[in-house]
Each structure stands twice: as C-alpha cells, then as structure tokens.
Fold:
Amino acid sequence: MNIADRIQHLRKTKGISQEELADKIGVSRQSVSKWESEQSLPDIDKVIILSDFFEVTTDYILKGIETKTQMGESGVNANIFVIIATALNFIGLLIASALWYEEQAPMAIVAGLILMAVGGVVFGIGHANSTQNAEKAKRLFWTINIWILAFIPPSLLYNMLLTGIPAPYPMLVFPLFALPAFWLVYLAICLSVVFLQIKRKHR
Structure:
C-alpha cells in the first residue's frame, strides 16, 4: 500500500467524499483526486493536516508505519448508533400513535417524542465519538430517519388547525382535500432531505 492507497483508505474509512476531505484540509477536490491516483504527492504541511484529521501519524501516511495504538484499535463504527437511534425513533412513533389511539391523551404524544428525542441524542453522541464511517452514517441516519422524525410535527399542526385535536397522525377531516395536501407536504419535506443526502454523497 502506497501513499495514494493510504489516503484513499483513510478517507473511505472516515466515510467522506474527496470533496469533503478537500474542504477539511483546505485544498481542491482535484488535488485529493491526484493524490489518490498517484499523479502528485501532498506537501509536507498537508501531510501534517491529514495526519491530524485522520488521527494517525505522519509516518503512517508517508511510510505506512502503524503505531501499536493504531494496530490495536478498531474504533467505534457510527453505523451502530444509526441502527440504535432509528429503532428508538421508530418505537417512539409507534408508541405515540398507539397510545393516542387508545387513550386520546396528550401524554401519549409526549411519551413518544421523549423516546424519539433519546434516539436523536444517542445518534448525536455516537456520531461525535465515532472513528469509523462518521459522515456516511450521518447521511444514512437522515435518509432513513427523516421519514420518522418529520411525521409527528406536521401531523400535530394539521390536526390542530383543522380539528383542534393534537393527534400524532393525520385524521380524516373535511374538507377532503386536506388529507392529500398533508401527504404532499410530508413527502416534499422527506424527499427534499433525501435528495440533499444523495447530493452530498456524490460530491
């Protein structure tokens, strides 16, 4: 494995694109592309910045020499926190909807929102402390969880405006076009976020 391979390996392990790496270290995307395709080598000051950013030694980038810490440390994979947070968010949405259906009490919504908030906190803490796939996991989190997190707030607004009842899911009310309008707004919000995540991935 040469310098080009090591830079590419570190970048992919971090879960970021060439453009994102370029932004982090203050060079153009073309520069990163040239480093990874062996067309040029990074200047020594960029090697130092790369080592700080990837939390490896300059010796590793230049020569492939790993420290004992690097060899023995696998790091925390951010995708684990995406799975946990998504499960908590989904359960929170189910609890809010099920309890409201049974009890018709605002505390049902509160219970669900608290669990969803815990899911967000879990992901935030996990993302901040992860050493593997952090940026990739962030994109994955929002691509999936926007469909869960964006459901209750517009539902509450929709129901309060039309019925005065704070239900966590859209209720069938008059005028009949109101419900299709809700779904159009919901889909527009979710698809916009998904599109942004896809766009970031391909930068």
